[in-house]
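Hey, resending since the last one bounced:
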Amino acid sequence: MNTINTLKKYRPEILGVILCVSLGFLSGYLSQSGDTEWYLSLQKPPFNPPSWIFAPVWTVLYIMMGIALAKLWRDRQQRKLLLSLFAVQLILNLLWTPLFFYFHRIDLALMDISLLWISLAIFLTVALKVRTVYWLFSPYFLWVSFAWVLNYSIYTLNI
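The structure tokens again:
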């Protein structure tokens, strides 16, 4: 198979990955996330990962989300509910970074990530029959679960 045919065959996956990775990067970039003076001044729990770990983890998760989106898009007539749930979780995901890093609202970020966790639990429940999508989203759900604990800990240590 030549390159053009391969690109055509995987066009939804390529576009899904580009969309998710670009939106995630843009959210972080515009929100000035990372080791800012404000973030470094926060009290953090002992299990807080080093800052360098977040970018590669989120990149992999956004790639997996983009592939899952493509799988849903290919069967969009039967997957309207999952596509809607995908959109909800993506919006909540992208809102967390500016709430936390730009507006310094750890409390609102905690509310947002709580809603994100619930939306992902619903998404995974509905996606049980779409095994590939379910397994692509499972690591994301686990990471958001850890991120919720981390957000909650930072909130309680800094109120």
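Residues 89 and 119 are 6 Å apart (CA to CA).

Sorry for the duplicate.
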